[in-house]
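Question: Hello, beginner here. Any chance you could explain the protein record under this note? Any guidance would be welcome.
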Amino acid sequence: MSQTVAVLDIGKTNLKLALFAQGRLLWETSAPNRIVPGPPYPHEDVDGAWTFFLGALRDAARAHDIDALVPTAHGAAGALIGTSDLAAPVMDYEWPDVDAIEPDYAAIRPPFVESLSPKVPGGLNLGRQLAYQKWRCPDLFATAKYFVPYPQYWAWRLTGVAVSEVTSLAAHTELWMPRQGRVSSLVEALGVGHLLPPLRHAFDRLGPIRPDIAAVTGLAPETPVVCGIHDSNASLLPYLVSRPAPFTVVSTGTWVIMMCVGLSLDQLDPRDDTLANVDALGRPTACGRFMGGREYAAIAGSSGNPDLASIARVIASGTIALPCFSGQGGPYAATKGAIRGDVEPRDRSALATLYCALVTDLMLTRMGANDGDLIVEGSFAGNLAFCQTLGALRPQQPVFAARDTAGTARGAAMLADWPPAYPIAMPTAVTAALIPGLEVYREAWQTAINLIAR
């Protein structure tokens, strides 16, 4: 008998509640995710999100019998919790002033060879957020009983059970050693080991929802809550159970995350913002990332997805976009983005598409991810020109598009009955395209890239 699973999906940009049965989307609703400016620092609007989820669960429960709840959330976020509430706000990882502690934090940061997590701006290293909260907000920090990754904050809020989970704890936090499968030296150096609750698997059931939540939402009091998972790792789950390694999932949204399953970790380079994440089964996965969704928007403006004719016009013009247009993520985060040449307004999306395809290709090459399928999922999967350009840049690797806007939530729903017994939907093969002049265009772009200091 199939069960209906409700996924609480907390993205950096949007909140979503989605219902699935055997991988089939039944119902969904969404709302913008909001950042509160402070004090004591910019932070996630968890109360606004909670109000949204309670209302959404109430609406969903009127239409469907919900059998389980699963949270998934973006990385670089964690919660200091007390007995019954937050001890401190959940910091916005884009807040630049956390850099104020860098001179002191640098003295205890684990080396890359240990954490496989590069130094990145703002609060993208969760360990640095935790250090800031301890050193600059000592009164709040002193009231904390636990520090939990963001998906597990929502599991705790639903059940009252505090746990840790490795996909989030190891997501460029500097708090974890992916090769060894245990916490890093930073945990001892910060003196926070007592704040980390027991580790549980992403697919473990933590217990039923709290009685007050059942009363407010109309959910059955015995509805179980699953531990939950980091959002990029949720996107990876369907492929872990449906295809052999090696392969790479290019997960796209605000960030472009390249998850290279079966790839050695030996070519990871912190200068390129390549790193090791850890999958739901505890295995390290070589990854690369850049803030491709935000950079695409900065270059393209309001224009939609291009066609190959538009790509051809930009290539013929010789106009190139050089990183970085977001100020964070990728090999050249410290460099201000620039457009060299002229581009017509109608072709700005083509320039953005070429730029994102070239950065993806560059990072895959530097990581050594030259074998196996490339599966594009998320927003760029609906940009056929991106998929075809990436395929033309990497003709040795078949490209597939998972045109599934609910891919993260769909993957997370699998955790409610792991491993899944139902068939997994396969991504669509992308037809190869001949793009005249692309190789020369790439060489020109690469020449310009090589002049940028890292």
